[in-house]
Structure formats: C-alpha cells, structure tokens
Design a protein that fits this description.
Strand content of chain A: 35-45%
Number of helices of chain A: 4
Order of helices and strands of chain A: HHEEHHEEEE
Radius of gyration of chain A: 16 Å
Largest interface: A-B, 30 and 30 residues
Oligomer: homotetramer
Chain lengths: 149, 149, 149, 149
C-alpha cells in the first residue's frame, strides 16, 4: 500500500478534510499539504472568540494541532504506521501566543523538520492576513508500527 | 469595584459561561470555580473526535486554556486588572497528552499555584470519568494594569 | 539481571553518583532515590551564579534533568532497557523559573508519575532551604529495548 | 547611558564573558553577538558527559539559556532596563533534544525574534561541527523597568 499513488492519496485526504465533522465545527480548512508540511486556516468569526473579540487560544491550539497531524499524513513514515495498523500519537503540544487575532484568517504553516521512524518533532507558525505572527507552536509525535503486514 | 460581592460576581460569571457562544460551540461547562481554581468539563461527542474516535487534542487544549482563564477571573489580581481596564494575556500553553479519551466527560481541574501581580503560573489536569489522567497542562499569564482609576 | 538485589543496585548507584565527574563539576548531590523518584540538591556557590548573584538557570535545568534521570534508574522499565542494551533518551526538558535562589541549597524532588514501557512523563520541583518553590520542571523520556537477551 | 558606544559595550561584554566564573566552569565561549542574536559554543569534554559519552542535557540547556541572555544584552530594550536598574527575568526554558553530541563543539545560535518592551520570545538552535541539529530551545524573558532615572 505504501507505493500508493500520491496524487490519489492527496485528493482522498482533501475530500476527507472537507466533510470531517470536527473541522466543520471549528472551521478548519486545508489549503495545501504534502509530506512533512501543511498550509491550513481558520476564518475569524465571533463564535470562536473570547469576550474581548480576540480568537480563542484554544482555537489557535486546535489549528496548530490539526495542521501538524495533516503534515504527517503523506509521509512514508506514517504510511508504514497505517499499513501495519500501528498508531500515531501526539504526546505534547506547545503554543506561544504572540499577538491577538481580531479579523481575517488565522493561517497556519506546519512543518515536521525532524522525522525519524519513531519520533517526529513538528513546528508551526500562525500568521494573520497581514503576515503578522500570531502564534508559534510545536509538537512531538510518536509512531508505533503495528503487527499487520 | 474590587470590593464587589464575591457571590454576586460568581453568579454573574456562571450565567455568562452558560450562554457564551464559544463555550456552547465546543460544549465547555463550568462545574465550579473560585479564586485561583476551576472545575470544568466537556462531554465526549463524535463531532469533537479524531477519525479514530478519540477526543481531538485541540479540544483538550481548549478545555485547559479556558479552565485556566476561568481560574483567574475571581482573583484579586484580575479584579485589579479589570478595574483599571488593563489586560490579561495568556502567553503560552502546554499540553502533555497521556491517554486517549473515548467516552464520558473530559474533566478538568485548573489551579494557579503561583500568582504575582504581573505573572501567573497555572496548571491543569484533565481526567476521565474513571479518574484516569488524560492530559496535563500548564500556562503562563501576564497581567498588565491599565490607566483607568 | 532484572532480578537484581535492589539494595545492592541502590548502593552501587549511590557510589557512582559520588564520583561521577559531571556531578562533581556542578556540585550535584544525590540525597535519596528509588524507583520513579529522586531527592537531590546542588549547593549554592558564587561560581554557579549569574552576575547578579542568582543561581544560573542552566544549573537549575541541570539539577532537574539529572534528577529525573536518577528517578528512572531503579525502575523495572529501565532495568529492561539496560538488560537488553537498549537506550533511554530524554527528548525534552522544560523549566519554569518561579523565584531566584541566592543562598543555601537548590533542592530537587523528581517524580515519574506516568511511566509506560516506551514513554515516561516526569516532573520535578526545585525548592529553597526555606521551602519556597524556585522552579518547576518536566521532561519526556523515551525507552527503547535493545536486541540483547 | 543608552546612547552608549555600541562597539565599546560589545568589547566590554566580550571581556566580561571571558573571565566570568560560571562560563569558565562549564566552558561556555562567546563567538559573536549583537542586539537580538548570539553565536556561542561549548567544547565537548568527558567531564560534561553522561556515562554513555554523550554531552549532558543540562550542559545543552545551559548553553541555550546563557546564549539567549547574551542575545538580550545589546538590545535597546535591555539597555533601558539596565539604565533604570530594572530586572530581566527568564521565566521559562524549553529544550527539545534531537541527537546526541559525542565530539567537537556544541554550537549555539540564539535569536530573539519577538521582543517587546515587556516580553521577549527567544529561540535557539544547537548544532554539531558537522552542522547536524542537536537541540532546539526556546525561552520567554520578562523585562521590568526600574525606578532609577
């Protein structure tokens, strides 16, 4: 299965993201992605805000977490996990909030600059429409191969 | 305003939380709270899950972030910020995911064990209905007094 | 080897710590320890300080890191790693600095409240002689079994 | 004092680092630095190692912490703190360990990409002589102006 057609896999994952209930609830949109990277966004709307009109920190954390997962899905390392029915686990998530977001999109670029067979170290940057940095995130992911062949 | 009746303030904050749009969207419930602590929860439902039926890490992060903020709202330190029209900013959030949550409530206890006039160091534990630890979180909060008297 | 006499192992590890060059350099002392916990300390001395007479943050970080490792050494999980010539890797370290230390000992209590076969989540608290909290730390440890029998 | 000659300040700070006791103890060397950045290193030597011959995580953490502080010293923001006898406090430090270092220098590049009047968010990368990434670090710094004029 690992020798899967990457274009087909990508289309399938795109379709999946469009109708995935949690993504719909929160407004998470997949802009583009490939092995070890993803560009995503969430549109600002009052329902996602604190009382002071700033996008909630939990929404920013969700954007980062979901984007990092998306950046894993087309990697060979993850394909192996899936082919063997193993598991991929996010063991930690860190967000540093730099500026409030009060309009437009929270845009996220996630990368996995260090990916081994067992551990991935991921990073993400969230920016506003004006290109200002809103938040920085990082996450550690543990891959466990399963027993299926 | 700081000499406000605490019971009245608490009732007001409870009412606020019940109708706050983001809390409704995500299902965040305030169980109880006081100065420097809060007990909260989010009910498991498929819409908040990953494809594998586990509550999304972003939801857990949101639960922790919102609970820590709630634990600040009745502190004298925050009342001073509000009275002077200053600001309270969460500058970072960290979540360590220990176990998947697949049913019941994600229950959160947030505390602010170290609170100065300018910085608060907060901690949170998320547990399942069986009392298993699901996640640990921490956060740093910066308080800035305003100029209003 | 796992069925080792624990008292003998503990004595051996105590002896080791007393003459271990890095511990001597930095002044790290093992007070007591067992499976999943360690009490340790570093005596304040000018050579370990910032120009302002406060113990350097790197010394506090070292105290936490070394204490967490020590808390692993008598666990069954680590014994298995050692018996199979596997590896134990600290993948991250976080320190929150709460107060400056300007005299006496930096005393550390490290615990590993969540230890599985592959991942350990550790926590540590550093206090002054007066019992004031100086710093909080946490760390994630990955265990990999080796191939030796 | 803020209008100080930057070259003179830099020479002074270089001289200071050469004879600073903690830096001598640990082998911390300042390679070059300016406002918001610093290049530094620590030479590998057995005394700084774990029993397995890998540079101790506490040494890497110290390298990152000291480098980030150094990157602050020539900023205008820090000069203001010094001129008013205020304080600069590192409130947290995070290190992600990517690879073991077993020879040569642990080389560090620290930057402060986000520096306001009150908070600085700093990042650091530690590499080996071959340019491999050994560790990533980040830190938050709080600046407090003093009352001196």
């Amino acid at each position: 299965m690992t020798q899967n057609d990457p274009d087909k896999l990508k289309r399938k994952l795109f379709e999946f993201a469009k109708v995935f209930p949690f993504f719909e609830l929160i407004g998470f949109e997949l802009v583009d992605f490939g092995p070890t990277w993803a560009k995503t966004r969430i549109a600002f709307r009052p329902e996602l805000c604190n009382p002071n009109g700033v996008m909630h920190g939990g929404v920013i954390a969700t954007l980062i977490d979901a984007s990092i997962t998306q950046a894993m899905l087309m990697t060979d390392e993850y394909q192996q996990v899936r082919d063997t029915r193993g598991s991929m686990t996010t063991v930690d998530l860190r967000v540093r909030y730099l500026r409030p977001l009060t309009a437009g999109y929270a845009q996220c670029e996630a990368r996995i600059p260090h990916l081994g067979r067992r551990i991935g170290h991921a990073s993400a940057v969230v920016t506003s429409d004006e290109g200002k940095e809103i938040a920085l995130g990082d996450s550690m992911i543990i891959l466990t191969l399963g027993e299926a062949k």
